[in-house]
Fold G-protein coupled receptors family 1 profile domain-containing protein.
Amino acid sequence: MSVYSNSDSANIVLIVVHSVLTIVNIAGNFLVCIIIIKNRDMRNLLDYLLLNLAIADSSTVIFLSPKYIFSHAFSHPEGSLGDALCIAVTGGNIGWVGAVTSVFCLVAIAAERYYAVVHPIKYVARPLRKRNLKVIITCTWILGVIFNIPAFIYRRYNEERKYCINTWPSVWVGKAYSLSWLLLAVLSTSLMAVLYFRVAYTMWFKKEEHRRESNLRQRAVPRMRKRATLMVMLVSLVFGICWVTDRTNYVIVHFYSPSDAFFSLAASNTLVLINSTINPIVYALVNHRFREKARMMLRRICCPISNTALPGADGPQVMALQQRRTGGIPEQHSRLPSITDNTQSSITEPPFYSM
């Protein structure tokens, strides 16, 4: 593979940044997957969407970062083998499938939150069933593949540039494709912004009316609801900043072809990887329940003997979770308040959004 800049220091920075992002991304999203899979109280509908999001984010960094990290380690094959590697691995197509999948997954989560908060009675009366959830998750991946079909068709290895590029049949095709990516980023960001604005407005400014309409719902502490809403808004904000910036840069490169295009694209791709890495960090910073479960999981891995010998050392929240697994506390009495909809039903309530 070739380097992405004539500056050695710039290439070193790029390698270090991508290496750190890869480690943090895989570790964080793997922890999210393990927490959801290992905890029965987190195996509900919205948590499975978050599990799908973690898998998509992991695939993004696994298939996008290596071409930057190992650019100095080996030479890319040429000819038909080089083209095949570009399509399957080194061109990053599979990574972009995961990236687009995460976009549609975030939109699905925003739509679910909107439906739960703005239309709570309908949400409780007609909850999303597992069959529908499987359809939604499958559709996110199908859409991710469909959106990347042109890249799978036209990605080739350029022997002169020593880099995988899209060999478009005409210039306007490449420009149109880059504009479609920008449109995807702008529309998804705008849709999530509208949905979360309605969620925040309903919770904060229509509080009394919302409580009268939602007699099936629990009453959460306002501070908890605000922090939880800020969490999902922060995730959407980071997505919008990273993706719109990256896709705008792609449009500039396709329309104006600057001399430092390759390094510019590599730098903007880093923003997409940051977006894929940031979600577990946001959960840990804002979501108290996720922090407790992550702490329990890490203690179980690192200190299995001391963790079993000293069950009380985890604090009251962790003891409550441990007692729940052994039947000490009925789940309906031990549930923590939700981020947004605070529904009493354990089917529709997302524990991952609890505080």
